[in-house]
Amino acid sequence: MDIIELVDELYDELNGKKGLFNKRVDLTRCAELIEVVRDSLPAALSEAKTVIAKRESIYKNADSVAKNIIKEAEERAAHKSDTSEVLKLANRESKLVVDRTYRQCDLLVQKTKEHLDSMFSDVETFMEETLDMIHKNRDELRNASIGNLKD
Q1: Overall pTM surpassing 0.85 (yes/no)
Q2: pLDDT tens by residue, 86-113
Q3: Segments making up each domain of the chain, as ranges
Q4: Which helix (H) or strand (E) holds 32?
């Protein structure tokens, strides 16, 4: 069960048919759900950190690949004849390879940023919904009178 489902279940427990003021809420179940949510949050945040770390690794790997391609192109150019035309061709070829590699790196970085933004947006939405639910429950608790709680 993911975090959103857990929060929905907690919300149903507190506001569903049982509700805070209609019948008794199963506080033990609520505590269990809160514990599972609390235990799940570090995993979700850790997942986001892993994605960030992978993004850096992808970027470094792409940069390393680009440098290797450049080095390989330079070595090929050095082994070719010194004629002007061959050197021009080699330079153009290496530039094309480098440009293509940097475009691929940029695309990977952009995709990683979009993925991270999506993950952080999901976490932000979850946190906002959870905070709203907590505020609502605190307000209901503050406004409850002793007579309403005995029902």
Answers
A1: no
A2: 778 888 999 998 899 999 989 989 999 9
A3: 3-150
A4: helix 27-79
